Amino acid sequence: MPRVRLGVALLVPAPFDREIDGMRRALGDGTLGRVPAHITLVPPVNVREDRLAEALAVLRGAAAATRPLTLTLGPPASFLPDNPTLYLAVSGEVQSVRDRVFLEPLARPLTWPFVPHVTLADEAVPDRIAAAAAALGDYRVDVAFDRVHLLREGPGRVWSPIADAAFASPAVIGRGGLPVEITVTERVDPEARALMGTEALVVTARADGVVAGYAEGWCRPPAAHISALVVDDNQSHLGVAQHLLAAFRSEAAERGCGEVTIGAGVE
After folding, report:
1. pTM for the full model?
2. How does pLDDT run across 26-46, given as a tens digit for each residue?
3. CATH of the domain spanning 3-168, picked from 3.40.50.150, 3.90.1140.10, 2.40.40.10, 3.40.630.30
């Protein structure tokens, strides 16, 4: 059975993620651009594809039992002499949510004990770590987290979120008959996306290796539909939207979908 490489993390929200990425860039962090700023709860673990639904259930169960939390990031510290990593210390109630997600099939043996942190530079030169820690010694910021993310490693060792679960109890409707659980997420999780099967169609545009936008929809011959078109404001001058629409229509035509409709609100 094929396996997928997963991880669970608290992704640092905007605008703090950009602030932290600025520090990572200045420090020459080799994972910048491949791994978002985050607090690791479950380090990389190989999970069989047929157990992905179990992993998502663990994520949802952990989130339902957790309430939004505010954590303090900073000051900087390092794992020297064991590991040449510079990071921001994390203060606050992290252990409980970590324990809730560290269950099968996401649990795994650990080389080091759990220390909540936000990595700034991995495999850095010790002298540079000391200088950076001194320069950033007063850095502290309180950050609110309202959800937990499941990430998957893709080509080029790029880690991307594939599902999220809000720190809140799910709404339940239809208690008089078959209960239906309603959750609100930032993205379509893999189980929900599976309902679309091979009909799903996503076209992504990149400029200098950075995502500039994407078009998402479905293709079911003889028709296709674009449900979302998202373009980075900083890249809109490149005509990304027009290129995405053209690429979506072209790919849809290749799949036998000559008629393409566009959802309301999609420009």
Report:
1. 0.77
2. 999 999 999 999 999 999 999
3. 3.90.1140.10
